[in-house]
Amino acid sequence: MINVSSIAGVHGNPGQASYSTGKAGIVGLTKTLAKEWGRYNVQVNCVCFGFIETRMTAPKERAEKLQREGQEIALGIPDQMRQMAVQTIPLGRPGTPEEAAGAMLLLASPFANYITGQVLEVTGGSDL
């Protein structure tokens, strides 16, 4: 089993108490299930993503817009905030969806048969 969380669930994130709490719960669930299900040869791990390029992290000024209940909702984050976030990543850029998938593929592969109860942070080196 591979659970998906966020580094906000491991390190916290100012202004996102409820989001960080929910993501931390996934981390706790992962560790508990790994201990409970190990005897059944079920490995349970968690991938915590940092800044990955998605429609939710696209520049708000150019991002996709959704229609909900007659209101237009712009996805993404302001470009200035994006630039500040990128500066905190040691690799100097956000991750790609393919790189995010690679972490999942690794944990789903036979190479991870003896890995359980772990939290893999896919962040480009950032812990923010």
Notes on the protein architecture:
- With 128 residues, the protein is an alpha/beta fold.
- It is 36% helix and 17% strand.
- The chain has a three-stranded parallel β-sheet, with helices on both faces.
- It has a single domain (2-122), classed as Rossmann fold, CATH 3.40.50.720.
- The protein has helices at residues 8-11, 17-37, 79-87, 97-108, and strands at residues 2-6, 45-49, 65-68, 71-74, 119-122.
Helix count from the secondary structure assignment: 4
The CATH superfamily title: NAD(P)-binding Rossmann-like Domain
When the domains are counted, the total is 1
From the alpha carbons, calculate the radius of gyration and give it in angstroms.
17 Å
Give the name of the CATH architecture: 3-Layer(aba) Sandwich
Spatial sequence of strands, sheet with the most strands? 1-2-5
Number of DSSP strands?
Answer: 5
Structural class: alpha/beta
Q: Characterize the largest beta sheet: strand count, sense, and whether it forms a barrel.
A: 3 strands, parallel
| CATH topology value | Rossmann fold
Spell the H/E element sequence: EHHEEEHHE
Distance between the termini: 26 Å
Tell me roughly what share of residues is in helical segments.
25-40%
**Poorly predicted spans:** none
CATH class: Alpha Beta
